[in-house]
Amino acid sequence: MHERRFHHSQAHRLEAPERLTWLPPAEVVKALHVRAGEAIADVGAGTGYFALPLAKAAGPSGIVFAVDAQPEMLDLLRAKVAGRAQHNIRFIQAEADATGLPEETCDLVFLANIWHEFDNRALVLEETQRILKPGGRIAILDWRPDVDREPGPPLDHRLSAESAALELAQAGFEDVTAAHTGKYSWLVQGRLAQSAQAQGTQVQDSEVPGRPLA
Q1: Is the separation of the CB atoms in 41 and 154 below 8 Å?
Q2: Domain of residue 104, CATH code
Q3: Looking at the domain assignment, is residue 2 inside a domain?
Q4: Is the peptide bond before 209 cis (omega within 30 degrees of 0)?
Q5: Mean pLDDT by 10-residue block, N- to C-terminus, for the chain (214 residues)?
Q6: According to the model, what pLDDT value does residue 11 have?
Q7: CA angle 155-97-54, nearest 5°?
Q8: 187 vs 32: CA distance, rounded Å
Q9: Which residues is 98 bridged to in the sheet?
Q10: What pLDDT does 209 receive?
Q11: What residues does 205 pair with on adjacent strands?
């Protein structure tokens, strides 16, 4: 994973104004159906491109755990939050497969643009299942391999939405959906089974919001 990790020295690219055009955070947050009062883990939070709008959507009664392995990224996010009246973000330096969060803490675990970095995605899913509440949701956003984009990772590092959806279904997540979002990304979502017994899941294309996979 470390060879493919987006390094903090490139953090300025996360703040590029054009990114708002080809990956609008409002479009993604809308697709996540965040409700007021929810607890959300933004794993790989970086400089807060999604953590900040997620915290706004969750409201003062909700909380966002901004999880990142790089302390430099969290420092940049702390600096942002310091200038805002936003007090529902907690900063956690940790890996995605060992967040340190208590069991059944989160309503939503969100992983943006880091799925392709993991060497062992099964461990990440196990950790996600551990920290999700029964019926909680997972959402994975990453780069499409069929659309080239210079700022993104090399094409041979990217994974398809179909493969991510299959991994969720095989891990026992239910109601798995896959859709395109923005210009260069896909979004795969699923729900943790209410019961402890994992069940098989049919993968579906999501119609709204987002665009169905071709």
Answers
A1: no
A2: 3.40.50.150
A3: no
A4: yes
A5: 50 58 92 98 95 97 96 92 87 97 98 92 97 98 84 76 96 97 95 66 45 54
A6: 44
A7: 75
A8: 9
A9: 95
A10: 42
A11: 178
Residues 177 and 188: beta-carbon distance below 8 Å: yes
Q: Which residues contact 125 (CB under 8 A, 6 or more apart)?
A: 138, 167, 168, 171
Kindly state the tokens that stand for 151: 């700022």
Q: What is the pTM of this model?
A: 0.85
Q: Rounded to whole angstroms, how far apart are CA atoms 34 and 55?
A: 10
Domain count, the chain: 1
- Residue 205 resides in a domain: yes
| Domain boundaries, position 84 | 8-212
- Whole-number pLDDT of residue 50: 96
The length of the chain is 214
DSSP letters, 155-184, are: GGG---HHHHHHHHHHTT-EEEEEEEETTT
Q: How many CB atoms lie within 10 A of CB 67?
A: 27
Pairing of strands 132-143, 106-112: parallel
Q: Give domain status of residue 1, yes or no.
A: no
Q: Is residue 3 part of a domain?
A: no
Q: What is the reported pLDDT for 200?
A: 44
Residue 139, classed as helix, strand or coil, is: strand
